[in-house]
From TrEMBL:
InterPro entries: Ald_DH/histidinol_DH (IPR016161), Ald_DH_C (IPR016163), Ald_DH_CS_CYS (IPR016160), Ald_DH_CS_GLU (IPR029510), Ald_DH_N (IPR016162), Aldehyde_DH_dom (IPR015590), Aldehyde_DH_Superfamily (IPR050740). Keywords: Oxidoreductase. Pfam families: Aldedh. Belongs to the aldehyde dehydrogenase family. This is Aldehyde dehydrogenase. Residues 14-474 form the Aldehyde dehydrogenase domain. PROSITE patterns: ALDEHYDE_DEHYDR_CYS (PS00070), ALDEHYDE_DEHYDR_GLU (PS00687). The lineage of its organism: Bacteria, Pseudomonadati, Pseudomonadota, Betaproteobacteria, Rhodocyclales. The active site is at residue 249.
Length: 479
């Protein structure tokens, strides 16, 4: 019997209001895993109403009490780590080792946000008047909505819910229709804690219906969205009708610059890992390389041998592989079409360049493309697959100019042993994050925020937490 999940609204799992169910399948085998509801418009409104009803009492709890609830949820997640990791792998396709890291990181992230309970401080501002005090308070926004993509589906629940709840907001989460099962399991575990009803709600469904309905609700104070640029623009347009705040974490096209004299083994490993982790479906990973001519051949040889050694397959059947399938057929077709167009534009595929010859699963061969030019689509648009395009450049200045000439502005990296050049790059690269001599991956205490079309606002650390607050300035005249 196929398992059918139910929406989680106001502290309980509710009968599915619409007849429509969404089938969730394993991208490695096409096996039907479960069905989730497409929430009815009334249920979407019920979830927001429940969050609104629960918010004032939740806000009144001392932050340290709210933090205890978060810690209880983190402990629940840890207690079912193995089973949650398998769920993520089955529906999303990442390798089991990475799914385990995702579960651990999610629990750690919730604990990290809980640590802020005693540290969110306001300000006392000097007044121009005698006998007056000016206080800047940090207040919750109210009801928040988290709309999620499929690539790190479990972690992204925490990235939105933990800072929202810690600061006194309530939340309604809508997972991606591609990977909702792990979110419904998350809700099951939340339900096993004594979190007050209505503080955390979960509704399943598609973006154009359930996502749009959530974004349009005037009771919602903040829509925190992670996903594609196109959807981000739609959400911003819909949110503008009620002047609802938005926090948008969108796509990326991260440049990696490799200079002469760099540790080429390190660069080749970090950049290869970037294209292989989560099958290249990571917003912040290196998506284009600018390598200085002096070390181009050495770098291309080393990165190509690493990519050639990547083993792919069904991550449940073989837990030792490096890479699983892409998330769905559209993802596979998009990657294949982009590589084909790159060839037509004059680039050369020196490794891979085709759909993998497997009987089932959406697998694409690890691919290295050289002779790329900056005007090619493959150097400008997000690929989201195990494909590495490389362009040779004459010097750092040229690399920086190409790197910055992009609609995207999420992450960037440079590999060099020259401190002056590293600093020059950090001062010139117009990106939310820059990694020097290391892989592209952020820390929970940093601030993950894209520029240009990569987003508005950010997540993580103190600055990410404050995105879930608004200010109130009190002017107190007291003699
Ligand atoms: P997507 O935009 O297709 O979907 C994301 C979510 O938005 C889904 O839940 C979907 O149902 C919903 N949605 C779709 N249309 C909607 C609408 N009109 N109104 C409201 N919600 C709607 O993105 P995806 O394919 O799931 O995710 C991949 C993208 O996410 C990539 O571009 C990737 O770079 C980006 N991403 C960015 C970050 C970051 O931190 N910047 C992190 C992970 C993924």
């Amino acid at each position: 019997m196929t398992k059918i999940y139910q929406n989680y609204i106001d502290g309980r799992f509710v009968e599915n209001g619409s007849q429509e169910l969404i089938e969730v399948r394993n991208p490695a085998t096409d096996e039907l895993l479960a069905c989730v509801p497409e929430a009815s418009p009334d249920q979407v409104d019920d979830a927001v109403a429940a969050a609104r009803h629960a918010q004032p009492a939740w806000e009144k709890l001392p932050a340290i009490e709210r933090a205890k609830h978060l810690r209880a949820i983190a402990a629940k997640l840890r207690s079912e780590k193995e089973c949650l990791a398998e769920t993520i792998t089955r529906e999303q396709g990442k390798v089991l080792g990475l799914a385990r890291v995702e579960v651990d990181f999610t629990a750690d992230y919730i604990d990290y946000m809980a640590e802020w309970a005693r540290r969110i401080e306001g300000e006392i501002i000097p007044s121009d008047r005698p006998g007056e005090s000016i206080f800047l308070m940090r207040r919750p926004i109210g009801v928040t909505v988290g709309i999620l993509p499929w690539n790190f589906p479990f972690f992204l629940i925490a990235r939105k819910m933990a800072p929202a709840l810690l600061t006194g907001n309530t939340i309604v989460i809508k997972p991606s229709e591609e990977t909702p099962i792990n979110a419904f399991e998350f809700a099951r575990l939340v339900n096993e804690t004594d979190l007050p009803a209505g503080v955390f709600n979960l509704v399943g469904g598609r973006g154009a219906s359930v996502g749009a309905k959530l974004t349009d609700n005037p009771q919602v104070g903040l829509v925190s969205f992670t996903g594609s640029v196109e959807t981000g623009k739609r959400i911003m347009t819909a949110a503008s009708r009620n002047l609802t705040r938005v926090n948008l974490e969108l796509g990326g096209k991260a440049p990696a610059i490799v200079l002469g004299g760099a540790d080429i083994d390190l660069a080749a490993k970090a950049i290869c890992d970037s294209r292989v982790i989560n099958t290249g479906q990571v917003c912040n990973c290196a998506e284009r390389v600018y390598v200085e001519r002096a070390v181009a051949n050495e770098f291309i040889d080393k990165v190509t041998s690493r990519m050639a050694a990547v083993r792919y397959g069904d991550p449940i059947a073989d837990t030792s592989i490096d890479m699983g399938p892409l998330v769905n057929r559209q993802g596979l077709e998009k990657v294949a079409a982009m590589v084909q167009r790159a060839r037509e534009e004059g680039a050369e595929t020196i490794l891979g360049g085709n759909v993998a010859p497997t009987e089932q699963g959406y697998h694409y061969l690890p691919t290295v493309i050289v002779n790329c030019r900056h005007d090619m689509e493959i150097m400008r648009n997000e690929i989201f697959g195990p494909v590495l395009p490389i362009q040779v450049v004459d010097n750092l200045e040229e690399a920086i100019a190409f790197a910055n000439d992009s609609d995207y502005g999420l992450t960037s990296s440079i590999f060099t042993r020259d401190l002056n050049k590293a600093m020059q790059a950090c001062n010139s690269l117009r990106f939310g994050e820059t990694y020097v001599n290391r892989e592209h991956f952020e820390a929970m205490q940093g601030f993950h925020a894209g520029r240009r079309h990569s987003g508005i606002g950010g997540a993580d650390g103190k600055h990410g937490l404050l995105e879930y607050t608004e200010t109130q300035v009190v002017y107190m005249q007291h003699g």
